[in-house]
């Protein structure tokens, strides 16, 4: 009976030793290589400012009282806040009342302008008022100016 106990203990010890040796052998066969990565993420951004130093964001433009048949200008500063060259584009939206868009025209002098990363330029908006606006009952208006910077693919 005692010999049977020793054989079982011996078999268990040999099995455990085999498992440990197998694990150590398998781990010594494993290898890896670390590959560092680096790069830059392209970013496109446009900021609109009241001053050339770009310290005060433009949040609204008050055109005041408009005279039919006249044009009114406002100066702002546009900054490329991204890290790639962009091409500037301006559109309008959200006209209120909707029919006022038939009597007001907004233009600017920076359409298609290419801006390098971090470059700042002066932009002049001109709002022209049709003489025929007097034939309507429009007394006030609002709209949004949307300035877009699109990556310049040279």
What report would you give on this structure?
The protein is an alpha+beta fold and 154 residues long. The chain has a domain at 46-151: Sandwich (Immunoglobulin-like), CATH 2.60.40. The protein is built from 1 helix and 7 strands. The chain has a 4-stranded antiparallel sheet with strand order 1-2-6-4, with no helix packed on it. Strands 5-3-7 form a 3-stranded antiparallel sheet, with no helix packed on it. The longest helix is centred in the N-terminal third of the chain and has 28 residues, at 2-29. The termini are far apart. The model has no long low-confidence stretch (mean pLDDT 87).
Topology overview:
Layout lengths: L1 H28 L16 E4 L21 E10 L5 E11 L7 E5 L5 E2 L4 E10 L12 E10 L3
Antiparallel strand pairs: 1-2, 2-6, 3-5, 3-7, 4-6
The parts where pLDDT drops under 50 for at least 5 residues are: none
Question: DSSP strand (E) fraction?
Answer: 25-35%
Principal-axis shape:
rod-shaped
- By CATH, the architecture of the domain at 46-151 is named Sandwich
- Describe the largest sheet: 4 strands, antiparallel
Structural class: alpha+beta
Helix content: 10-25%
**Can you give the mean pLDDT?**
87
Query: What is the C-alpha radius of gyration, as a whole number of Å?
Result: 36 Å
Order of adjacent strands in the largest pleated sheet: 1-2-6-4
CATH class of the domain at 46-151: Mainly Beta
- Count every helix, treating DSSP H or I runs of 4 or more residues as helices: 1
| CATH fold-level assignment of the domain at 46-151 | Immunoglobulin-like
* Distance separating the two termini: 90 Å
The counted number of beta strands is 7
String of helices and strands: HEEEEEEE
Quaternary organisation: single chain
């Amino acid at each position: 009976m005692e010999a049977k106990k020793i054989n079982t203990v011996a078999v268990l010890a040999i099995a455990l030793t085999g498992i440990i040796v197998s694990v150590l052998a398998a781990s010594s066969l494993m290898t890896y290589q670390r590959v560092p990565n680096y790069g830059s993420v392209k970013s496109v951004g446009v900021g609109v400012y009241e001053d050339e130093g770009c310290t005060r964001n433009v949040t609204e433009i008050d055109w005041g009282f408009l005279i039919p048949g006249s044009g009114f200008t406002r100066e702002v500063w546009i900054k490329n806040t991204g890290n790639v060259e962009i091409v500037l584009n301006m559109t309008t939206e959200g006209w209120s009342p909707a029919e006022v868009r038939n009597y007001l025209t907004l233009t600017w002098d920076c359409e298609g302008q290419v801006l390098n990363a971090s470059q700042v330029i002066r932009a002049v908006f001109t709002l022209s008022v049709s003489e025929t606006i007097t034939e309507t009952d429009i007394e006030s208006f609002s709209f949004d100016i949307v300035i877009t910077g699109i990556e310049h693919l040279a």
